[in-house]
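User: I'm new to structure prediction. If I give you an amino acid sequence, what do you actually give back? Let's try with this one:
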Amino acid sequence: MARKELIGEVVSAYSNTAIIVVKTLRSHPLYLKQVKKAMKYYADDEEIKAQVGDIVRIIETKPLSKLKRWRIVEIVSGGEK
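Assistant: Good question. You get back a string of structure tokens that encode the predicted 3D arrangement of the chain. For your 81 residues, that looks like this:
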């Protein structure tokens, strides 16, 4: 089974951990209106490079702690400073 990959924005960065928000559009099953959905993912940041506002690519991994199940693979673009 392939690992899932997501792209999202870093909203909080700690030592070795970053919180990533992934925003998606979903269609409501009955009314068919597009609904925005935002999910928070805790991701492992071994190299401590991610900063708040960065757009990053995360990949699924084995459970690393109570909440961390994702790992930062690359920084797609830097945040506005």
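You can read the tokens as a compact description of the fold. Here is one thing that stands out. Residues 61 and 74 are 15 Å apart (CA to CA).
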